[in-house]
Design a protein that fits this description.
Layout lengths: L7 E14 L5 E14 L3 E5 L6 H9 L6 E8 L2 E4 L5 H10 L1 E4 L11 H11 L4 H14 L16 H14 L4 E5 L7 H16 L3 E5 L3 H7 L2 E4 L5 H4 L1
Parallel strand pairs: 3-8, 3-9, 6-7, 7-8
Antiparallel strand pairs: 1-2, 1-4, 4-5
Helix pairs in contact: 3-4, 3-5, 4-5
Length: 239
């Protein structure tokens, strides 16, 4: 069992997930069973396995977007622990503001809000003052090579790679202890993949932890401290 004061940011124990397809007669689709791993401070843990193995479902359960059927998701939260698997929606939202952030493969934002305002808002939600939040946003967008002429424009007008750089900047803006990354570099060129690798390396050196999926073998090799083989938790195999 995870105890306060350890180096663990996250401990997952006995996690199960089955989807029920209500539009198809209530068919039950088992995904994973008995998932167990930990993420320490300063560590990048990468979920490995083929498409459909349940990697993204695990990330979404950790973030509280999917409800787990069984098990615990223990997140270091101040001097205590929060079990995301049983936490209330209010507790999950508080953890998202101050403890963990999520970078998906897609940017979902209010259509008319400018890129720098989107990133600055994430920094403010994590507790930064408005001026510091905007400076943080500008710094991240610069490091991710998004031209300044685009900063005030809504990302809906951007290319896929430009949108993803805004998405990454938003995820890093708050300085959260745990970052959850679902294929963050998939739509990026080599230069911007390197920029993301550098951001992750810096955050790890400062004690931040990462739970990630990287299909890019080079990025995975450069960043992964440990690989978790998700096929070992396949609910189909366990059935």
């Amino acid at each position: 069992m995870m105890k306060p004061g350890t180096d663990n940011l996250l401990v997952v124990e006995g996690l199960d997930k089955t989807f029920t397809l209500h539009l198809h007669g209530g068919v039950r689709l088992p995904v994973v069973r008995g998932v167990a791993f930990a993420v320490r401070r300063g560590e990048c843990v990468v979920l490995d396995g083929p498409s459909g193995a349940g990697k993204s479902s695990i990330l979404k359960m950790v973030f509280g977007a999917y409800r787990a059927d069984a098990g615990r998701i223990l997140l270091a939260d101040g001097d205590g622990l929060l079990d995301i698997a049983t936490a209330s929606p209010r507790e999950v939202m508080r953890a998202r503001r101050g403890v963990m952030s999520y970078v998906s493969q897609f940017l979902r934002v209010i259509p008319r809000v400018g890129a720098i305002d989107i990133v600055a808002a994430a920094a403010r939600e994590a507790g930064r003052e408005p001026e510091a939040a905007r400076a943080r946003a500008a710094s991240l967008l610069t490091r991710l090579n998004l031209p300044e002429r685009l900063w005030r424009l809504p990302p809906a007008t951007f290319s896929g790679g430009e949108q993803q750089r805004v998405n990454i900047a938003r995820g890093f803006a708050g300085g959260h202890a745990l970052l959850i990354l679902d294929e963050p570099t998939a739509s990026l060129d080599a230069e911007n993949r390197n920029a993301v690798v550098e951001l992750i390396a810096e955050r790890r050196a400062a004690g931040g932890g990462f739970l990630a999926i990287f299909h890019d073998e080079d990025v995975r090799a450069r960043l992964a401290d440990r690989l978790i083989d998700v096929t070992a938790f396949s609910a189909q195999q366990a059935a």
